[in-house]
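Why run this: before we spend reagent on co-expression, it is cheaper to look at a predicted model of the complex and decide which construct boundaries make sense. The entries below are exactly what would go into the expression plan.
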Amino acid sequence: MSAIETADILLVEDRESDAELALRVWTRERLSERVRVARDGPEALEYLSACAEANGLPRVVVLDLKLPRMHGLEVLRRIREDMRTVYLPVVVLSSSSEEADIAGSYQAGANSYVVKPVIYDRFAEIVREVGHYWLCVNRLPRPEWARGQR
Amino acid sequence: MCPGEDPYPRQLWLQQLEFIVNRSPAVAFLWRAEPRWPVEFVSENVRQFGYTVEEFLSGSLLYGDIIHPDDLPRVVDEVERYTCEGRSEFLQEYRILTRSGELRWVDDHTWVRRGPDGRVTHYQGIVLDITARKQVESELQRERDLARTLIEASPAFFVAIAPDGRTIAMNRTMLEALGYRAEEVQGTDYLNTFVPLEDRPLLARVFEQLAQARVPTVNQNRVLTRDGRMLWVEWHGTPVLRADGTLDYFFGLGIDVTERKKAQEELERRYRTLSLLNRLGTALGSTLELPEIYRIAYEHVSQMVDCANFCISLYDPAERVLRAGFVLSDGQPLDPSLFPPLRIEEGERLAGRARALLSGQVEMVEDLERARAAARQAGEPVHLVGEGEEPLSAVYVPMWVAGQVLGLLELQSYRRHAYREEDVALLAPVANQIGLALANARLYEQVRQQARELEQRVAERTAQLQAANQELEAFTYTVSHDLRAPLRAVAGFSRLLEEAYGDRLDDNGRHYLDEIHKQVGHMERLLSGLLAFSRLTRQPLRLETVPLREVVESAWQELAPEREGRQVELVVGDLPVCQGDPLLLQQLFVNLLSNALKFTRPREVARIEVGCKEMGAPGAPGQPVFYVRDNGVGFDMRYAKGLFGVFQRLHREEEFEGTGVGLAIARRIVQRHGGEIWAQGEVGQGATFSFTLGGEHHVSHRDGGHPARGGQRE
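The model came back. Tokens follow.
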């Protein structure tokens, strides 16, 4: 198996603009530069699978819902079904403020749901918060858990 | 004792004789055989007639003188005749006149006395006054004549029949009625000549009863006329007995009740007809299904007449064609399409079905075989379906409905002349009833069909509407989402640009970026509004009892940021409790109050009033009407039409910002509660926005009143 570059954050987002803006925030805030971007669900799942086999999973998955090929919720379900990634933190970051999407995401096992604002200031703030929380604040009791091992 | 013998001396004997004779009514005469009969001897008792012996003996009175002049010729004639015949005695009856001129009938027993040469010399005789007897006789005769007159003149039948069954006599009335002459009937065997076969046993029993029980009887039986007709007669029979009690003859008095019987039968027939029509009508009226109607028709008609072949055919006036609708042969249904439609054309040689259809009258075909042969000869099509016997007679009855012939009731039988006038008379109203039922069923089916079509169209339309609605919602939803991402990108990158290169830009450059920023914000607000609006139509209404006063206060709280730094007065009047969705109602007030706040900004002191008044809203009298009034800049009523439209604005962007969706949302909320919203304003004088919340669902005017009834909701 080829060596996988470990990442702190797996960003599942098909829009380049959204991805770039998010990356810039995390870079600027010095939260992380090790961000892996997957353009769709299958790519994300493949990456996670490889991570699980290898050294370690990312600290958090930031998941958009509006993805091509596989809807974000489906991706989330698969992540939760896989025993290796069942405890992996997933934050749904979506432009949708629909109740159905919010409730559905929590039901599928999302750790939190954040609405993507249009106004840049707020967008930047939210992205920063997500990164800050999951990379700095949220310390998992057992490091092995972050690596997907029981 | 003979004369001359002792002991009775002849003198005494003659004296006795004389004495006896003279005391008797018998007058002894001895006449000479000469004209008018001079009397040689007459007994003294001639005095009973008022005459004396001397008158006669003297020759002053001859016997012929006292005979009634009307009878004299006959008497003379009789005497001559009897005499010439050589008779020795004879009897006569004639009238004589007494001395006083009275008339007497006498019975004359005369003996002829002849001389030695045989010539008649004298007549001797006993003349007896039989006047009394004659009177009795003549009265008897009168009675007999009267009886005879009565018998003959009576309109009733009189017949006398001997005990052995032979006819003795009939009165004139009976003879005339039966068509016989008196001499023809005399002596005939009554029972076997005048009584039809079926009634003979009954009458024979009647005779027996009369003979044995010797009491009168009453019975009805038919009698045969000479030409084979039958009359119904009500007989009153009596046995006539002789003086010794033996049966002399049977006497019958008969009343012709043929008419009465006919009338009775007619009534019964009418009753049966009406009964049948009634039953048929009821049965037909119980259904609107074609197969049922056909079945009922067959059931009833087959009880009336022979229906070996039963067919109901329907006429299509557009194509002038008669089509079989229902066919039963020998009780088995046949496929009507086996029978080719009959083209109906006018023409002289119309027959059978065509004639029945076009004339509207019943057609009876008494010999179907002949009709078929004629048709074949004429080259017309003849259709027979199936094997086996061919029908030999038929009747085609048109079904009349609303002045038109709907079709035919066609019946066929394997017998010839199976259908008679009286059957046919009944079939006509029956056919009409069947026709009516068929017409009704057809109408009903049409109506049902139309209803089905209508339902289908409605269902289609509803589905279309629903689909369109869903599309619109999906569209709105998708659009607002899909537009946000690029907008976010524009916002983000323009900010990054500003952050990274802002210090290298001049005022213009920074102004451009500012503009971009502002516009992004505006578009974001538009999209939000659109999204909220779309969400409004999709979410179900959550009905609760909502205290409006609290809702207004809540909304006011929400608008605190907008009120910051301003002098705003809010007056809230009496607001009732009502049924509605609390969140939506709050949104409604937020929008209306926000609107009011916005347009009162130029005022130093903004005054906003929220209240409720009981009055007729347009189209819904007697409802509470809520209002939000402000003292803002108002608007020109001429342009008020578009006030509630999505993205519609009555003021320019630079005067008052806003997406123009707020009022559209307000109207949507009000509509979903079943109410209406409208606005009044005057330029420079402020505006009042009024609304109702549906017809049936508010009640109290004070907070905490009784709960509202439900209402129509979307």
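Chain A touches chain B at residues 15, 17-18, 21, 24, 66, 95-98, 116-121, 123-124 (CB under 8 Å). Strands of chain A lie at 9-12, 35-38, 60-63, 90-94, 112-115. Bring this page to Monday's planning discussion.
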